[in-house]
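Q: My labmate handed me this sequence with no annotations at all. I'd like to see what the chain might look like in three dimensions before we decide whether it's worth expressing. Could you predict it?
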Amino acid sequence: MHYVKANGAEIPALGFGTFELESADAQAMVKHALEVGYRHIDTAQMYKNEEAVGRGIAASGLARADIFLTTKIWTDRFSDGDLQASVEQSLERLGTDYVDLILLHWPNPDISLKETLDALNEVQERGLARNIGISNFTRALIDQAVETSGNPLVTNQVEYHPYLNQAPVIDALSTHGMALTAYCPLARGEVFKDPTLERIGKAHGKNPGQVALRWLIQQDNVVAVPRSANPDHVASNFDIFDFNLTEEQMREIAALHSDDGRMINPSFAPDWDNAA
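A: Here is what I predict for the chain of 276 residues:
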């Protein structure tokens, strides 16, 4: 397993995501992913599957210390007091005393970022989370969060795949010693139809999804958290540590970026950075 180091954290570069997994699937797939070799599990309060994720971890038989567990705080729990209580509730659902990483799931302009980050810092200082970070923050918001937080932030989890240029975010994170954690790393399955990724994959005996994931984790300070409810796909997504893409192949894949590559863009999203 390859690890990404960021502001004191050591994050397994490939994690298993659980977005949109119903409880039964979440439990079964988390257990399966851990059996395959994943050691990083990603969930969130908003996914409503923390209990199932916790059951999957318990069923794996692995020691808690061997698993890097991430969850995220939903924006309606960002007030001081409410945030800390929500984390305690997440831990209870997950069946653990701590998470390895906790993130603010989206920016919330209606609550002071200082109030939210002070509460998040307190969560870390109480030992409820080993590391803290953010998700779906733009370059300007990353800078603001780093300046505001007393404790180091270790990652910003954002949509990232071959069709979306995240250069401004990557540059900001690099400046602050933070990692980028990529969600939707397979572009909701679109990578599997891509002739460039298919051609590069054939050269390595890999499928287009494996190439897309390799492209991500072969970049400095990038973590990827693919999600699947298919046991075979969960296993194949993990089978990316036995080959390397050439510099030319890395450039070819980066050239797939497009202006309309973003797939996750809810009404409450911030004004995204323009990478042009």
